[in-house]
Amino acid sequence: MATAHSRSAARIMISPAVILLLGWMLIPLSMTLYFSFLRYNLLMPGTHDWAGFLNYRFFLTDPAFFAALKNTLILVGGVLAITIVGGVLLAILLDQPMWGQGIVRILVIAPFFVMPTVGALVWKNMFMNPVNGLFASLAKGIGMQPFDFLGEAPLASIILMVAWQWLPFATLILLTALQSLDSDQLEAAEMDGAGPLSRFFHIMLPHLARAITVVVLIQTIFLLSVFAEILVTTNGGPGYATTNITYLVYAQSLLQFDVGGGSAGGIVAVILANIVAIFLMRMIGKNLDI
Amino acid sequence: MGHISLNQITKTFGNVQVIPPLDLEIRDGEFIVFVGPSGCGKSTLLRLIAGLEDVTSGEIQIDGRQATEVPPAKRGLAMVFQSYALYPHMSVRKNIAFPLKMAGMEKSEIDKRVEGAARVLNLTDYLDRRPGQLSGGQRQRVAIGRAIVREPAAFLFDEPLSNLDAALRVNMRLEISELHNNLETTMIYVTHDQVEAMTMADRIVVLQAGVIEQVGTPLELYSQPRNIFVAGFIGSPKMNFIEGDAVGHSEAAKIGIRPEHLNLSTSEGEWAGTVNVSEHLGSDTFLHVQTEKLGTLTARADGEFPVRHGDKVFLTPQEDKIHRFGADGLSI
Ligand SMILES: Nc1ncnc2c1ncn2[C@@H]1O[C@H](COP(=O)(O)OP(=O)(O)OP(=O)(O)O)[C@@H](O)[C@H]1O
Ligand SMILES: [Mg+2]
User: Fold this and answer.
1) Are the C-beta atoms of residues A219 and A79 closer than 8 Å to each other?
2) Which residues of A touch B50 (CB under 8 A)?
């Protein structure tokens, strides 16, 4: 089929989609790039002076930027760690034949269907609230001081909420991967004298490597831009304790009305995301073609 | 050592009894083959011996010791799976070394044994490849290598050659037989290919629906089958069965005659018929002959026998090679 003719036909056929996607990506990107070099503040209408790299200098030297960068990395790393470890364990659990398997599986998947804003609000008001929350009354029940999650450990609390959202996704992908493991291999390992732990580390985990890479890749893309959970719970605070890059860009452009600065932040975020993507692609390239 | 005895073992899945009470004595150093039609419980029996399935009742003894409750790894048996069950992310070397590593053996001793097994199995050049980069026959040899480094009391093979092409199958058959001659370890081999069974076995166990129909050396089963099932199952092409009037004076409900025990002639003989299909293999000729009273019979002639479709031939059974069966299917 791959004749010169069919290939050029394929190129023509596919070009509208490619052009559309390219425009879709390029136009906003170039406009952001353009704005990032302007002194463009909504509080001063009409002034669109050329600013050079001033916006970038302000954004990158802002102490909030480093805090946000650190928070972003901790958030992504923390959620990845929780969802992958938890996902593998849950997948193994769900793979066991047990009573009520169907219902348990649906329950495990459910958080994925809850909107991030709703999920975060439920966590904030129903579980973590130090006065009315479930955790608070639990603590009181066993005679302990209620813990103010969002006040004392705001970033950890956000990580917990986001991990809760993404755990089902990881579990689902890992479960399907686990089910594709040839049972003969496990039996052979059993006969070779491998106990349950050895079987897990020597047979199951290597088998799951690809699936784990896929989960890491997809989740990283989404986790770099966590926003709703922060907006509805902590508003990036206290201080900058829960501000990630996405939230910082939002704060810059829509709370301080500095479109130029926000755009510069946006471009920085794009560059950071690409650096992460390059690392991930390297990792995946190694892992995906066994 | 590798003496295995099964006492009254049974296996039930749900409410289906796959293995009714079964006794079997497997001697030390013996090459024993389980044959039977698909679904008769060969694999199940092997897995019961391996410990991958629990027996429903009865007991298994290995070398005189109670093994019924012993976990698979502690039974000292090694199994080669039909799907090879190699670990895809490990190199051949690591695959073969895996059971030794699990046993906590020293690195230098592991290396020595792996090299030794690789030499025996002609795998030395492939030690650093992944299983995915090997041919079917090489994978099979890796699976065997993984079994022999453990120096088990007995080997269990579950249709190890069924994924290979015909020529390779013959080769591997010889290699496994040779391995058995060198190691002199008990081997239990499951197959549904009766040629494999006949050529490799010291003794054959013929199973049907979980029941042992007969145990014996290949030639015992060939010349003195205990019943119609064994007579029909062992031998290729199948034995011809004749019932009704033609049984005649022999006082049996049914008689059987193997294709190689029918003398062929184009001029005279006991039963007349026309050739339906003739298969000329060079070394032998198989004729499917349509007779008037007895239905289709298969006959074998040594070398070339020049007849074609539609030709008239005569068949004469060798009187002393006729098998007689009673109404209950047992040999008389
Ligand atoms: N885990 C199981 N649950 C229920 N029934 C089973 C199970 N394993 C095997 N059986 C049944 O037990 C019977 C024997 O199966 P087994 O795999 O031992 O056959 P086999 O002789 O090895 O056949 P084949 O030559 O096709 O491999 C079959 O009827 C099968 O359906
Ligand atoms: Mg089988």
Assistant:
1) yes
2) 191
Stretch(es) of chain B classified as CATH 2.40.50.140: 239-325
| b (16+ CB within 10 A) / e for A118-147 | ebbbebbeebbbbeebebbeeeeeeeeebe
**Cβ of B81 and A202 within 8 Å?**
no
Closest Cα to atom 26 of ligand 1 = B38
CB contact under 8 A, B88 and A290: yes
List the B154-158 sheet strands across, edge first. Answer: B77-80, B154-158, B186-190, B31-35, B203-208, B211-216
Q: Which ligand is nearest to the CA of B40?
A: 1
Q: Do B85 and A193 touch (CB under 8 A)?
A: no
Query: Quick one: pLDDT band at residue A6, thresholds 50, 70, 90?
Result: confident
- Does A198 touch chain B if contact means CB atoms closer than 8 Å? yes
Query: Which chain A residue has its CA at the smallest distance from B96's CA?
Result: A192
Q: Which of B42, B191, B196 most suits a substitution to test ligand 1, by most atoms within 8 Å of the C-beta?
A: B42
**A181 and B CB contact within 8 Å:** no
User: Each residue of A96-144: pLDDT tens digit?
Assistant: 888 888 888 888 888 888 888 888 888 888 888 877 888 888 888 888 8
Q: Which positions in chain A touch B77 (Cβ < 8 Å)?
A: 191
Q: Which two tokens stand for residue A160?
A: 């917990």
Q: In whole angstroms, what is the distance from residue B326 CA to residue A213 CA? A: 67
Nearest ligand 1 atom, CA B14: 4
In tens, the pLDDT along B203-219 reads 999 999 999 999 999 99
- Per CATH, which fold does B4-232 belong to? Rossmann fold (3.40.50)
Q: Are strands B254-257 and B262-265 parallel, antiparallel or unpaired?
A: unpaired
Q: Is the confidence metric ipTM above 0.95 for this complex? A: no
Tell which B residues from 269 to 328 touch A, by Cβ distance under 8 Å: none
A203 touches chain B (CB under 8 A): yes
Task: For residue A192, give every residue at least 6 positions away whose Cβ sits within 8 Å of its Cβ, in sequence order, or none.
Answer: B73, B98, B99, B102, B146, B150
List B272's β-bridge partners, or say none: B314
Residue range B239-325 forms a domain whose CATH class is: mainly beta
pTM of the model: 0.80
**Mean pLDDT, residues A32-47 taken together:** 79
Side chain identity at residue B224, one-letter code: Q
Question: What is the edge-to-edge ordering of all strands in the sheet holding B240-243?
Answer: B240-243, B254-257, B323-325
DSSP β-bridge partners for residue B242: B255
